[in-house]
Task: structure prediction
Amino acid sequence: MNISFAETLRRLRLKNDISQQQLADLIHVQRSTIASWETGRRIPDVAMISKLSECLGVDVDTLLHYSEKCDKPLNIILLDDERIILEGGLSVLKETLPTAEISCFTEPNDAIRFVKKNIVQIAFVDIEMGRVSGLDICKELLKIEPNMNVIFLTAFSQYSLDAWKTGACGFIEKPLSADDIRWQIAHLHLPLGGVL
Result:
């Protein structure tokens, strides 16, 4: 998986817990300029790359070549407040996607912190987690990582209509099965290409 300069910039900014506006203020540009760099619409010139590397605490070489060093396996998170569901889901995911790196979370805030620091391609998210709504968690995850494929997990199919309004790309009724995972992977919003 190759990561573009735009993604590298966004990841390093989030890792440093700096907003687009804060970074823009630090290097004296408009916030929209940072946004255009992070979406790949524009590329900064050499002087700006130097300023960016200083603000992000990395050398220019790291900033420019970080993407070449990130050929990592598929990264997946599984978020559910029930440990038994996590254990069963982890087992099925490992069987179905043996080369993937899978991280499990019972606490939404832990999952959000993980996504801020790691490139995650797929998130399996429970819709009902006590007082926390998986629908809200999905929106938060997609703010951090717009290119993430979020697939909802639930025991209640009546949530499916609400789920589609969040930007999620899939919906699986519990328990997870290998067939459901394969079908969802084949129908992602942002295809991964040849993972199965």
Summary: Strands lie at 75-79, 101-105, 122-126, 128-129, 132-133, 149-154, 170-173.
